[in-house]
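Following up on my earlier message about guanosine-5'-monophosphate. Here are the inputs again, as you asked, copied directly from the submission form:
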Amino acid sequence: MSDTPVLQRILYSKEQLAERIAELGREISADYRGKQPLFVGILRGCIMFYADLLREISVDCTMDFMCLSSYSGTSSTGEVRTMLDLRESIKGRHVVIVEDIVDTGLTLDYLMKNLQSRGAASIEICCLLDKPANRKAEVHPKYIGFQVENEFVIGYGLDYDELYRNLPYIGVFKK
Ligand code: 5GP
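Thanks, got it. Here's what our run produced:
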């Protein structure tokens, strides 16, 4: 539990997250058999999801990370910047982007365009949470953990002003 009562309610428990992530891992592993995919984690929100998902992947794969910035507080600024880029070339690779949550879609729209220009063989998105109510750009995640309502969520990697990422479950933030 957090030191401060910041949650309105818990949305997904540790057990629910583990069960869904194991399903995603099996689905992705089946789709990428023999393809040696590259999993690109989008820091910092992806950390818990990435670590747990990758342990459910049963095909040979490699890992890399990017850090993008588009948010401050609870509202999107709409501006995306690359704070940390990939270490390796993705030319000819099958890339799976691992993201915590898709909200407006602006971050992933920027990222898809950016990665497509680098010559990947394929690029798909795997997001733990999808919040379709706020969509401003067309993005189509192939793998989605859960769809959520238009509420601000925290925990399991997701922050509010850098706090609460360490909560082992996902909950709705109490304003
Ligand atoms: P988008 O560009 O799709 O609007 O936003 C993507 C990023 O905004 C996510 O990777 C996440 O960091 C942040 N974000 C969007 N919705 C939420 C939310 O409900 N809670 C938290 N903690 N972050 C969010």
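One observation from looking it over: The two ends are 18 Å apart (CA to CA). Hope that helps, and feel free to reply on this thread.
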